[in-house]
Amino acid sequence: MADTVDKAKRSSIMRAVKLENTSPEMYVRREIHSMGFRYRLHDKNLPGRPDLVFKAAKTAVFVNGCFWHWHGCPRTRMPKSNTAYWKGKIDRNVQRDANNHDQLRGLGWTVIVIWECDVDAGVSELANHLASLR
Question: What is the pLDDT at residue 90?
């Protein structure tokens, strides 16, 4: 199926995609905050600017969209148009994520990735991890 939206409209739609404060990220933040945990947001001094940073616990949390970071769940379908562009874009995202996570681990940080499709399970995993460090 060909793209039914013209190039200008598609560009407008893609510009509207948020980098920070996405719905899954806001949900994770509200749940973790309600459990009494406090954190910093998008620390520019850490590789990859993690979504949530727990400095005392040296834990960096990324709340990833399944499509953009290619989780492998049903939400990760390759678009049928401009496939070469999207494959390259997604491959670069995945490689950048891996490099950022490796750098953080090299600095002694624990990295937790919460996927958009597994937000509830990810919040529980994060809460258990943080509780074990208290």
Answer: 92
